[in-house]
Amino acid sequence: MPRAGLSAQAVTDAAAELADAEGLGALTLASLAARLGVRPPSLYAHVAGVEDLRARLAARGAAQLAARLQAAAAGRAGPEALAAVAVAYRAFAREHPGAYAALQRAPAPGEQAMPAAEEIVATVLAVLAGYGLAGDEALHATRAVRSALHGFVVLEAQGGFGLPLSLDDSFATLVALLDRGLRGA
Amino acid sequence: MPRAGLSAQAVTDAAAELADAEGLGALTLASLAARLGVRPPSLYAHVAGVEDLRARLAARGAAQLAARLQAAAAGRAGPEALAAVAVAYRAFAREHPGAYAALQRAPAPGEQAMPAAEEIVATVLAVLAGYGLAGDEALHATRAVRSALHGFVVLEAQGGFGLPLSLDDSFATLVALLDRGLRGA
DNA sequence: TGACACGCCTAACGATATTAGGTATCTTCC
DNA sequence: GGAAGATACCTAATATCGTTAGGCGTGTCA
């Protein structure tokens, strides 16, 4: 029987595709193995189990998201940078719902935070510097902005907004609200 | 063998306690049955399965949350009402992490939204009326407020905020930011 | 007191994650 | 080019979970 030629990278990539297409809940070692033309136990040669797989997915997603946000913030400042980062954040979550969902898992106790997560915080901090924020004040504001973006994106992904009202307009309202709130801080 | 004297209500209540104490992920029919001194299949006399159980948990949580928010908003207006509702929202999520997590599940397609969810929206809308918002503008603002609160609470619950910085202060910053943002809308 | 409803049980099945151990393939070195 | 070792993949087996089918005993009501 020929080998499939897998690797931790290939397995994680396939898992990300499957999670994005079918939802993170549909990502099982059984479904992933089937997709890769392999038996479930064979995956243990590349990942340590389903928990490890989800952690890899999260790390992968965080790195991609950080890159997207940095690209969006580059060359922009103030409200323009905020809007660009917000749009990029939402776009990533929409394009990669599985990866974004994996990002939500709680880091295991003792597990150090992903380096990509710090990049994301740093990017938002840089945007907030354009609003004249620094120090703890900026850190609190970063949490606020992150909360707002995360909350919107999560609610949107799970259909939490019931009414038939434009989601794009709602998101624009949110970004404008953040902008006004940050100006006065 | 004596009967346990269960009911859909008792099963749901026990499930809520278990989910709040151990996390929604630890809520299985097996663990719930063990807690109730019963065998897993016996639960099917009261709930239709694990999915139905989670839906009941979500409905129960939504009703409780709606009541808490209404109580917080009662007799208050404007910024004071916003702050009170925000604090109540966060307090509920902290006190009932399992119920709040259950609330996040996507409603099944075709399943009508929970009536309690509409109460929550109505409460926030009433608060926003104090900011002079009405119509679609108010609905968009409601989504923004809900996103921010939900995002903060979710990130807090899963330890998503890495830095050793006061969460209370961060939440206060978020509420102040929302207040300023709503004033200018 | 009898009949009936039903709450709870055991038995069984399918899906999942995971471990143990075997086999065949690829690589590498002489 | 061929042997030796690493390892990618396999089958077999186990534990846990959700779920269905069917039986038994407890409660209630005529």
In terms of topology, how is this protein built?
The structure is a homodimer of 185-residue chains.
Chain A: H1 8-22, H2 29-36, H3 50-73, H4 78-95, H5 97-103, H6 115-129, H7 135-157, H8 167-183
Helix pairs in contact in A: 1-3, 3-4, 3-5, 3-6, 4-5, 4-6, 4-7, 6-7, 7-8
Chain A binds a DNA duplex (30 and 30 nucleotides) through residues 1-6, 28-30, 38-42, 44-46, 49-50.
In short:
Chain A is mainly alpha-helical. Chain A is 69% helix and 0% strand. Chain A contains eight helices and no strands.
Features:
homodimer, 185 residues, mainly alpha, 8 helices, DNA-binding
Structure notes:
- With 185 residues, chain A is mainly alpha-helical.
- Chain A has eight helices and no strands.
- The interface between A and B is large, with 46 and 46 residues.
- The first copy, chain A, binds a DNA duplex (30 and 30 nucleotides) through residues 1-6, 28-30, 38-42, 44-46, 49-50.
Structural class of chain A: mainly alpha
N-to-C span of chain A = 65 Å
Write down the Rg of chain A. Answer: 19 Å
Number of strands of chain A: 0
Strand content of chain A: under 5%
Query: Which assembly state applies to the chains in this document?
Result: homodimer
User: What is the helical fraction of chain A, as a range of percent?
Assistant: 55-70%
Shape of chain A: elongated
Stretches with pLDDT under 50, minimum 5 residues of chain A:
none
Largest interface, counted by CB within 8 Å of the partner chain's CB: A-B, 46 and 46 residues
- Largest sheet entry of chain A: none
Following the backbone from N to C, one meets helices and strands of chain A in this order, namely HHHHHHHH
Mean pLDDT of chain A: 93
Number of helices of chain A: 8
